[in-house]
Amino acid sequence: MSTSIAIVGISAELPSGACSKANLEHSSFFDFLLNGQESYECMPDGRFNVEAWKGKNRGEIRVNGGSFLKDIDLFDNVEFGISARDARSMAPATRKLIEQCFLALVDSGIDYRTRNVGCFTSGTNLELTNVADPDEFDCEGSFAGNPSMISNRVSTHLDLLGPSVPTDTACSSSLTALHLAVQSISNGECDAAVVAGCQLNHRFIDWFNYSQGSLLSRDGKCKPFDASADGFGRAEACVAIVIKPLQQALQDADQIYATILATAINSSGGGAPPGAPVAEAQRDAMRRAFKLAERNPREVDFIELHATGTAKGDPTEVNWVGEEFSREDEVLIGSVKGNIGHTEIVAFLASLSKVISIFQSRQIPPNVNIKELNPAIQWLKYQLRVPRSTTPLPCHSARGSLIAMSSSGIGGSNGHAVLEGPPTRVSLDLRTEFMAARPSLFVSAGLSSRSTVAFSESITNMATRSADEMPVLSTILGRRSRSMTWRSFAIADSALGALQFSSPQLCPREARPVVFVFSGQGPQHERMGRELFERFTVFRHSVLEMDRIYETLTGSSMLRDYGLFDGCGSPGKLKDVWPISLILPSIAMFQIALFDLLASFGMKPDIIIGHSAGETAMLYASGAAPKEMAFELAVIRGRAFAPLEALGGGMAAISCGEEDAEEIIASVRSELPDNILEIACFNSPSAIAIAGHDIAITRALEVCQTRGVFGRKIRTSVPMHSSMMEQCREDYCRELRALFERYPGQHVPQIPTYSTLTGERLSDSIDADYFWRNTRSPVRFTQAMERLTASQSCTFVEISPHPVLVSYISSMAGDGSPVISTMHRVKPNMPSVDHVDLLRVCGELTASGFNGVNFTALNNRACYECDVSLPTYPFSKKSYALYPDTPGYAKQMEPHLGPLNHRYLRINKDTHPVLAEHVIRGEPIMPAAGFIEMAIEFGATALLHVDLKAILSLSSEIPPAVEVVLNSSYWKVQSVTSHDWHSGKQQKRLHADGYLTFEPSQPLKDIDIATIRQRCKNHVGSSFYSSLSYFSAYGPRLRRVTNVYYSEKEALVSIKGMDNALKQYVVLLPSQTTYVTLP
């Protein structure tokens, strides 16, 4: 059984013809199909001069139209970081693929940059040097136009690290690419993949090849299933999709457009001539696919066929489909090619865009260009029907809608895919209570600062959306930002007024490690976490879980007895300076609950640091101990330290280095030798905390003031990290040992954790002794930070009710390391900003390059929950030449003076079959009238001294180049007979020359034809050409003479007029010039 694969992203540019001024996108394409519209039109301006080459013969193009994309020359190379040189050297298809793959990945919202994402693409590799004669000056030393770059450049500029595979199996290329991508995911070679194809038809020579191969229909349209099917019409398109395993897509709450159950590919082998459809090979690919999918073909609700509208291909494909899929009720089939033509490389993906919309709308659009069903198809026998009006999609299986798709390439490469509709989604696990007025986080992101600002402006204009749309919009924008290199954010909240986006930040290629820093005591306040408790279930449940532990251990409740977190208890019990028995567990409760909340939204740290009391929460956050143990530790610490509050101790923060702090301490000790004063914390190279007796603390602050050193008291009466803590050692260590006995085992951090006890990374198991030393020893936060930042740049997040360490961290983190505070204390009469603070943290983390925020959980709304129209990506495109400025391109664009006079004239029996009917002694040669016409096509009004020098044979298999040269009034016709490529010399043969004039001609005198007729007694009728047969033979189209009347001195010849059908070959026929030039 194959692994089910979800299609989670799509972007498309499809031809619109006269129906729109812009190319069709995936969403607008289906409306186009439902309305039965077509995109066929004449060759657009800016391509080659198709009218000059239109015709049915060799060296000519059969049609002058098809379906074309608009603006294929436009590209924003700067946005993708591509040099102008490389952009010029790239095939336009590669440029389109980069753009559409990017947009498909953006649509998917997956985190793709520097991830194991594969790239499987196919495109027309038509760069400047192969759309016209190569020119050495078109080569700029760039390899961006190499065939491998069709996929490699997509991987490079989108930074995809998975397999990068270009595919080319002709018209089945994009299905082959999909099959390889599905296999790569199933084999574990990549986690997701982008699959894309681009067909552009601007290469001159291809149109001749298709014409000579008799592949193109006479009207340039595809007519699938129609009796008049006579070939296909060429079409252009670019489509990209993103796929990943279905289970992962469900887990990630991705938009799922459809599910790929299985794909299969094969070859027709040598059982038929190349290009001929082989029913058994196509059937085999289908059977393989359904076997892998473990589904029955008769469960299929609709089949999207390859059907291009060829006389042989359609019946071959449809009849085997009828045999395999027939059942008691009708089998619905269709082909998108009637609407847009055959997009060749992109044929499968163009059809897939249609199929995805069929799943979404449960409507099958009408097939167009069907007047009479092809009688070679056994419609009635197999109960086949092509919908000609919009038809509901039936459902033949309780397992869901099923659609089959087939694809074939002209070289014999066949494929089949079995798709199922998107799965039914279960409702999200509610993590927040719904609040109509809740704030929303909007992340604006792009590949440049310019586009990020432009996108911010577009989002600002959308900020008036309904309350239902806002969280979905936030989810979509947040998900899409994860792979953008520039980001900014804004918070939409009625209290904040208009959206104010932060300045765009450039994100590093690899995200910085996120460091959670748990603060110590000091930032606690009465309203901390209150709004988080009210609004977020995860936070509330965590707090309630710990409060039950607190009540078991102390007999009191933080909520009920102190009014913390829920605001419903007795806040009057709290004083300005809280007891240590409340400070430490309340800080731990807040930090642990906030950690749980952040983790539920995907914000998990890569590194942990705990400052002093913050090492309690660190124990849990690092995975070294369960929540219960960590919180019990906080309660034990608070209870053990409570007796020290009566000892007259305290702490202070002073802004100086260690050396200055030691001098201040020494000065105080000399005055107060019986009092303890010691360094308690190394907060930064210029910030120290001291602890000891309160009288010594007060004196130290006075000394600081005299020395110009800032200092302030810390709101605590417990002299932490000083020798005064020795008085609680015995009781505290006894409780610590009992705690670690209740929770036996190794307590080793599961993620990198830096100890502020040692200043080093923790590698050993944490034990009871560690937490005694944590209490007694100074906090070595400076040393831990220096060790951490010595070799890496990090993003720091302080986990605290109010910032206390941010300034210290910022001074040590180094340039470019973001430092983010979580919560802020507000003034007593101000409303809480916890929710806004939480969104700000998410926004700052995301803008700094962190991709872990789960916006679906944050907003409690998935990206697929309502249809939100989004602004288009703000590219700033400029034009790049489709053709080189070389003589080879001039050949494509230069108008023809006439059928026998243009710069690149080549003539033989295949290019000008009418002239080849002029046969002299068994050899088809250019008639004299042809040479005369070549000169007249310059616009001459008269020819003088015409001299016919040598015959020009038309029998050569390869038509020789014929030069019609005009130099002032002298003209000549010559052909190139040989070319010495080493010397550069050409051998030429002169066939005719003379002089011409452009002067207005004199009016001709009237001729009395009746009188001449009376003088010419002799008459030759139908036997005229028989009399010439001994040396010449004229084909039927040149036999224009119907009667000849002649005498000894004059003749009157009756000539049949010009047939318009012949004017593409010649304007003057031999019979029209031979006799008017007789002497």
Automatic annotation (TrEMBL):
Q: Which Gene3D superfamilies match?
A: 3.30.70.3290, 3.40.47.10, Malonyl-Coenzyme A Acyl Carrier Protein, domain 2 (3.40.366.10), Polyketide synthase dehydratase (3.10.129.110)
Instruction: Identify the residues that the record assigns to the Ketosynthase family 3 (KS3) domain, covering every copy.
Output: 2-421
Keywords (A to Z) from UniProt = Phosphopantetheine, Phosphoprotein, Transferase
Q: Which GO terms describe its biological process?
A: fatty acid biosynthetic process; secondary metabolite biosynthetic process
Chain residue ranges for the region called N-terminal hotdog fold? 887-1003
Q: Which Pfam families match?
A: Acyl_transf_1, KAsynt_C_assoc, ketoacyl-synt, Ketoacyl-synt_C, PKS_DH_N
Indicate yes or no for the key word Transferase: yes
InterPro entries from the xrefs?
Ac_transferase_dom_sf (IPR001227), Acyl_transferase_dom (IPR014043), Acyl_Trfase/lysoPLipase (IPR016035), Ketoacyl_synth_AS (IPR018201), Ketoacyl_synth_C (IPR014031), Ketoacyl_synth_N (IPR014030), Malonyl_transacylase_ACP-bd (IPR016036), PKS_assoc (IPR032821)
Annotated region C-terminal hotdog fold: the residues are 1016-1079
* PKS/mFAS DH domain residues: 887-1079
User: What protein name does the entry list?
Assistant: Polyketide synthase
Organism of origin is: Postia placenta MAD-698-R-SB12
